[in-house]
Specification:
homodimer, about 210 residues, Arc Repressor Mutant, subunit A, about 0% strand, DNA-binding, repressor (chains A, B), BetI_C (chains A, B)
DNA sequence: GTCTATACGCTGATAGAC
DNA sequence: GTCTATCAGCGTATAGAC
């Protein structure tokens, strides 16, 4: 689900060792450069937020001047959108891809995976809340993401309800919003006390409450 | 639960019209001034975050120069701590005060109240996530708040479990963290789409799942 | 207590040489 | 494409007159 306005982001990761010369111009090198910039920006925005992170920080990390960085991304805003779009390619947000896989399994699996990728949870948590301030460039991305996610989980819960596998009295719509909310909130607590919070356990608990065994 | 380090914040709101002269010096006026500064800072930090909000914004809002503001709060950090401490006096975080009151009733009541106070939810959501960046001055406040809240709800769920009113299989500790997480997360979604999200309903749903009727 | 003046750093972004 | 130089602005905080 790519945001249409984010035209900056690279298409697919190509082979690192560019054996054959690129068909038209030095696009391969440029794309590689862009990827490393986005990776650096990812880390900077995760650690300092959008407002707190500077282009200089990103440029230092990638080993280039701040003005050269602006050659690839004409503004800080564009860089943020590229980072957010790149995030989508990492995460699948717990939607089961394998039809055999349970919703709970997909969610728990994704939650466990996120724990292992440094910065993923931090970037998401920090930027999401920051985006409700001002005229933050990330607001549209997060608003659309929430709507999309709620629709996705609503479909999943509705399907379960049709099979009679949703606990009686549970509203699919509110359950969808609640699952997302629980996930987001538990990530925040986990960031502050990773050893005390069992993210996957809390998500599993909730889904075991809502979804009846097959 | 006042943070010990926040020595800045005023004690109790006094009568606005200071009829009798203050006993020692112009303390009353000064306190009033401090309160209006904190109120302005509350709004500014809610709308722009800590990093995004400037002392100039606060000073403009309260109608004084930025340097005069620093006379009352020697640094931006001190001002933030005063704002966070003031937040505690507004919110009770859904702990039942009346022993007759259900946990669910207390939570739902607080959630409904928070909706009516502009900026309360926004300030909390924005600053909480922002505090996990950098060496943000608010981190200690939110970390301690989470620990305190988890202990509080753990007690409540444990007491319910002793009465046999906790659904079998529910872990009181994870339920405490989950309730807080759900609350935080649903507030974020509500900020982005207030008309689509039923905060109180989601919280009620969760507690109805976890707590058995009396 | 309140102000002006100001120090001093950092910000994102532009111009233009190479 | 990459750089240096630079702009114009804003940030917090300090010094000191009144």
């Amino acid at each position: 689900m790519s945001t249409p306005s984010a035209a900056q982001s690279a298409a697919q990761p190509a082979a690192k060792s560019a054996a054959q010369p690129a068909r038209r111009g030095p696009y391969a090198k440029s794309r590689q450069r862009r990827e490393s910039i986005v990776a650096a920006a990812y880390a900077v925005f995760a650690a300092h937020g959008y407002r707190g992170g500077s282009l200089q920080d990103v440029a230092d990390k990638v080993g280039m001047s701040q003005t050269s960085l602006l050659h690839y991304f004409p503004s800080k805003r564009d860089l943020l959108l590229a980072v957010l779009h790149q995030r989508d390619t990492i995460t699948q947000d717990g939607t089961p891809r394998d039809p055999e896989q349970t919703l709970a399994d997909a969610v728990v699996r994704q939650a466990r995976f996120n724990e292992t990728v440094p910065g993923v949870i931090e970037l998401y948590t920090v930027l999401c809340a920051e985006s409700v301030t001002d005229n933050h460039p990330g607001l549209e991305y997060f608003t659309e993401r929430y709507e999309r996610l709620r629709r996705s989980y609503l479909r999943a819960f509705t399907a379960l309800a049709d099979e009679g596998r949703l606990r009686p009295g549970v509203d699919p719509g509110r359950a969808a919003a609640s699952l997302i909310a629980l996930w987001d909130g538990i990530q925040t607590q986990w960031l502050m006390a990773p050893e005390r919070i069992d993210m996957a356990g809390c998500l599993r608990d909730y889904l075991d409450l809502v979804v009846l065994p097959a």
